[in-house]
Fold this sequence. Notes:
The complex is a heterodimer. Chain A is α/β, with parallel strands linked by helices. Helices cover 30% and strands 22% of the residues of chain A. Chain A has two domains: 6-102 and 259-320, Luciferase, Domain 3 (Luciferase, domain 3, Roll); 105-246 and 328-342, 3-Layer(aba) Sandwich (Rossmann fold). Chain A contains ten helices and 16 strands. In chain A, the strands form four sheets. In chain A, strands 5-4-8-9-10-11-12 form a seven-stranded mixed beta sheet, sandwiched between helices. Chain B is of the alpha/beta class. In chain B, 37% of the residues lie in helices and 19% in strands. Chain B has helices spanning 2-14, 27-39, 43-51, 72-81, 98-108, 131-140, 176-185, 204-221, 229-245, 281-288, 306-312, and strands spanning 59-63, 85-89, 112-115, 124-128, 146-150, 154-158, 195-200, 247-251, 254-259, 272-277, 295-300, 316-318, 331-332, 335-336. A seven-stranded mixed beta sheet of chain B has the order 8-9-10-7-6-11-12, sandwiched between helices. Chain B has a five-stranded parallel beta sheet with strand order 3-2-1-4-5, with helices on both faces. The longest helix of chain B is centred in the middle third of the chain and has 18 residues, at 204-221. Chains A and B meet through helix 3, strand 1, strand 15 and helix 10 of A and helix 9 of B.
Amino acid sequence: MTPWKGPAAALADRIAQFIDSSLEGTPSEDFESIALDMHAWQSLSDPLLRALSPKLATEWRAIPAVPVALFKHLHVGTATDGPVFRTSGTTGGGRGEHHMRSAALYNQGSLAWASHCLQATPADVVALLVDPATHPDSSLSHMVALFSAWSPTPSTSWHQTPMGLDLEGLGARMEALAGRPVFVGTTAFALAEWLENDVAPLPPGSVLMVTGGFKGRVHRLEGEALYHETLARLQPAHLVTEYGMTELSSQLWGTPSTAYRPPPWLRAVAVDPETGRPLHAGERGQLRFYDLCNLDGSLGIETLDEGVVHADGTVTLHGRLPDSPARGCSLTAEEAWAARNNA
Amino acid sequence: MSLARVKSWRDALRHADATEFDTGLSAEGARAAWSAALDALGDHALESALARRGKPYRTAAFIAARTVFSAPLEWCAVLLARGTSVTLKLPSGALGAGPAMAEAARSAGLPLTWTQDRAVNAELVVAMGSDETMAHLTDQLPASTVLDPHGHHFSVAWVTGQSTVDPVVPEGFRDAWGAVAADTALHDGRGCLSPVAVFTPLPLEQAGPALADAMRRAEQRWPVGDVGCGEWGLARSRAALAQVTGEVYRAGRGSVHALPLRFFEPAVLPRHVALFHAPDVETMVATLRPWAQWLSTIGSDAPKATSALLELGAVRVCGLGRMQRPDLVRLHDGRDWVATTLRP
């Protein structure tokens, strides 16, 4: 039974149809028509979004995007019951919350796009992530848990703990695979930590997904060096990259050598960080995303990441927006919160 | 002998063109910041600092942060006047006035050099920067080296609307809002003496436009310099928070973010100021108390509030317009910095 009612239920149906039909190459309607109707409904329903956009936008790029920092301070969207995903809080100032009435659209879109992008969908899933059974607010774990749908007899294990990687359990699981291909989902930091140990090559046909940065932590393996060592030692048949955020319901997939591809129901725009004005394709700027699956939250999300949106809609990520050239004895909000929390 | 040379050095530096320094500030901003720093080195101030007697260090290193390019000036002046050889360690890409200071010192016969080497070898090390830098130095320096660390701090202002007649405050900025706008503009609002937030008992509908107007005036006089993409992004993010929960008042390229008190956080956003209504000084003190250990200066136009602000833990309470123009002899981060230029 749908948790949505009235216009929201109609929108949810349209979005669900758009997800299926667009992947089949015959979209049920165009992105913008759903986006503008969704924007109108969200503005009507949520005073926060209405305050950001007293006048309705007439073009999807003009729809206001909620900065991710606001999710730490305010309740964004109209859902009060249902799943909640939370940011890790590593950047200080509390944890941002993404509320949904239902994860139905999240699940449909995430699984469909991952399945579409990946060349193989192994039945065995090994996650260097926290267990969603104990951490139901981790959106990344939630997404990887969806991949059990790839097999009628799925087998998923979780190997991240608050103390670090569960290396013993991970080793045992890898041995138990007995040569079956596996999907490994990991953050960059967990992967780097794993590679500090003796590792055997993954079984033939395996897929390794890397996502996320290091969240301020330092490791000798980063970026290209991490990918190089992964390919050399773990030898996955497919090394893929994933870009997602707690505040989004959809993800982008790529490879170390190709840009991130968004699904048809997610569009990216790079904007001028000073003015917020959209830039032309190919120009480097602050990334915004418009995600039709964010029905209960905000269609538009403004990140603090920097990247290039290419003419074909793919995204090259350049990491966090570069900070000021002049930082020193003054506090940034992140540092201040971290210091206060550690005091 | 050294004091005379330091005075000669200071006078030579008055003729230096601050716009040629690597500061990231606008030309007008660089000149104003440099002038304010040199103004603190008056003859009387230098003599007062040197009145404190003791055994000087033979060598000292000053590790500069990226924020306030003129910060090494006062330390170098006092250390050099004591006969200490000083090495300025400058951050990459932010040399500031360091090379010019060293060149002028060479001409004046003073032992001041600069470097970008990471290695530190001196009897006294004065360091400004992040907490990580301080922790790294603490680990790396030999036990025989005296470290004087200056980590993160922030400042705020309390504005009730009283004008000032302080001649130190630039003309045209001696109204309360003008004075705090001048404090915000100097060094583009970066640095631990810049007000990250303004608290006022006045209605925000009155205070917001007044502060924004003053900040526009300040920007006309001291245009904004380089601002990082991340800083713009964060500024627009906080503006969105203010748009939803309070009010945004545009002020040239900057803005005033009028916010409810619960959203206070000591974040530096160049030329963007958070404005909070506090019905009385006690309310402001209560808001700041969780952050008190990082509090540096409170600029205030209400002398009656001073005792409450000092009790909160402010290292320094001064008039508006003086926040970034501290006296040479003072407590720095709560410590008698002049005393630290002598062996314990």
